[in-house]
């Protein structure tokens, strides 16, 4: 994900975090390849001393969560022995006391960290920890989606000789997004993924995009993955369904499309622009 896009997603996540939890300030930033965290994004009033700070791997709360790869909490920043105190002076200027931080991890590498902090003597409970962890997971999913779309769009041109390859890229991206959608339980992220999937149907290389949908979302998922050669068992695994349920969706889709086989269902669905 480009820096501009990551910053936009970070700002949105930090805004939601502050709205949902009531933290005094929410902040965070990207993690460089060497594990150094750069504090660049802030939502809420600050003294400004943390802006631009480099938090080194293993140092402070942010450096600790980068090293651990999971959410961590300190209810009294200055008294805790769970972290190093390299940044105490700056934290004191900001008058922060209770902090929670969560890493954004993609392909096993931290790419960002988000924090929530209170200036009062708050105890950071399970609800706040769950909320920040959920926002971090949403950022991870958004990053994967952005990378998938970027990969699919590489090399898109109007040249006739590249249309087939381009369509295959679109279909592969569509399949990845449908598998990802099946694992997401955040309504906002689900809605965003569904919109992206609809956009792919209208992407370059598909003629006369569909104006409506004959199939349900799940039926489209099953037919789309079948079009990539997935067996029923593999479709079930990808979408978190049972094989019996996959067969049921396929049977329903075939009936709606008036298809006599899985292959014909795929061909007819593509012809109707219901799948890429």
UniProtKB/TrEMBL annotation:
SMART domains: HTH_LUXR. Residues 208-273 form the HTH luxR-type domain. GO terms for biological process: regulation of DNA-templated transcription. CDD domains: LuxR_C_like. Pfam families: GerE. Keywords: DNA-binding, Transcription, Transcription regulation. Coiled coil: none annotated. InterPro entries: GAF-like_dom_sf (IPR029016), Sig_transdc_resp-reg_C-effctor (IPR016032), Tscrpt_reg_LuxR_C (IPR000792), WH-like_DNA-bd_sf (IPR036388). It comes from the Bacteria. GO terms for molecular function: DNA binding. PANTHER family: DNA-BINDING TRANSCRIPTIONAL ACTIVATOR DEVR_DOSR. This is LuxR family transcriptional regulator.
């Amino acid at each position: 994900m480009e820096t501009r896009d990551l910053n936009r997603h970070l700002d949105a996540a930090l805004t939601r975090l502050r709205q949902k939890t009531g933290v005094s300030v929410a902040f965070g930033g990207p993690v460089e390849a060497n594990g150094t965290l750069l504090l660049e994004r802030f939502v809420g009033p600050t003294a400004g001393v943390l802006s631009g700070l480099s938090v080194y791997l293993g140092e402070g709360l942010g450096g600790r969560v980068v090293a651990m790869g999971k959410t961590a909490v300190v209810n009294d920043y200055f008294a805790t022995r769970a972290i190093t105190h390299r940044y105490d002076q700056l934290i004191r200027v900001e008058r922060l006391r209770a902090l929670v931080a969560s890493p954004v991890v993609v392909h096993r590498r931290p790419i960002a960290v988000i924090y929530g902090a209170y200036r009062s003597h708050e105890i950071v409970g399970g609800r706040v920890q769950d909320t920040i962890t959920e926002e971090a997971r949403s950022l991870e999913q958004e990053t994967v989606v952005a990378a998938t779309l970027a990969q699919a769009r590489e090399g898109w041109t109007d040249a006739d000789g590249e249309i087939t390859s381009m369509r295959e890229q679109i279909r592969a991206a569509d399949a990845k997004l449908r598998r990802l959608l099946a694992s997401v339980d955040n309504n906002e992220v689900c809605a965003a993924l569904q919109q992206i999937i609809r956009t792919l149907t209208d992407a370059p290389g598909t003629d006369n995009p569909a104006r409506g949908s004959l199939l349900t979302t799940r039926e489209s998922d099953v037919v789309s993955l079948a079009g990539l050669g997935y067996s029923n068992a593999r479709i079930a695994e990808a979408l978190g369904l049972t094989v019996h349920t996959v067969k049921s969706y396929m049977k329903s889709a075939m009936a709606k499309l008036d298809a006599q086989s899985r292959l014909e269902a795929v061909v007819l669905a593509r012809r109707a622009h219901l799948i890429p």
